[in-house]
Amino acid sequence: MARSGTAHPRARRWAKTDDTQRHILDAATDAFGTRGFTAATMADVVAGSGASIGSIYHHFGGKGELFLAIFEQMANAVDRRIEAAWRRHPKRYLIDGTPDFLTKAAKVLEICFFAVASSRPLAGLLL
Predict the structure, then answer these.
(1) What per-residue string of b and e applies to 35-46 under the rule 16 or more CB within 10 Å gives b?
(2) In the chain, count of helices (H) and strands (E)?
(3) Is 33:122 a contact under the CB 8 Å cutoff?
(4) Angstrom distances, CA of residue 20 to CA of 15, 17, 74, 90, 120
(5) Angle between the N-to-C axes of helices 53-60 and 9-35, in degrees from 0 to 180, rounded to the nearest 10
(6) From the CB of residue 117, how many other CB atoms can be counted at a distance below 10 Å?
(7) Is residue 97 classed as helix, strand or coil in its secondary structure?
(8) Phi/psi of residue 52, each to 5°?
(9) Where are the beta strands (DSSP E) in 1-127?
(10) pTM: predicted TM-score of the whole model, two decimal places
(11) 52-86 pLDDT, tens digit each
(12) 38 within a domain of the structure (yes/no)
């Protein structure tokens, strides 16, 4: 039980876990983007993140799972940008009052391009 006036220990541990995962993902994105997925090593991720190899395997399992986590993170960011664009300008994506697939697809590609281009490590990783 936490002492009066202090944060609950479990809450501190979860906050630290989130920070650790963020540092690991950032380091992996940089390593994979700079060196390429095949050439990058877990030692590169350890050096860039400051996390132990055990911590990385605990949180992600391995190099392949790190890549998938980065991809999922990027896909979620793109989804959020698409939703935000749709909410701001819903009529832009309609022709005769119905959604136009090609217009929406073109906008999705544009948003994806800018999402990747806004992060040099992601651009190096995915392009």
Answers:
(1) eeeeebeeebbb
(2) 6, 2
(3) yes
(4) 9, 5, 18, 38, 22
(5) 100
(6) 11
(7) coil
(8) -80, 160
(9) 94-95, 98-99
(10) 0.64
(11) 999 999 999 999 999 999 988 888 887 787 778 77
(12) yes
Structural domain count of the chain: 1
In the numeric block, the tokens 């994806």 are attached to 112
Give the H/E segment covering residue 113: helix 101-117
Confidence of residue 15 (pLDDT cuts 50, 70, 90): very low
Q: How far apart are CA 28 and CA 59, in angstroms?
A: 13
Q: Compute the C-alpha angle 43/16/10, nearest 5°.
A: 135
pLDDT recorded at residue 107:
72
CATH of the domain at 47: 1.10.357.10
Domain range for 15: 9-126
- How far is 33 from 63, CA to CA, in rounded Å? 13
Q: Tell whether 4 is covered by a domain.
A: no
Q: What is the separation, in whole angstroms, between the first and last Cα of the chain? A: 50
Average pLDDT of span 85-114: 68
The span from the CA of 51 to the CA of 34, in Å, is: 19
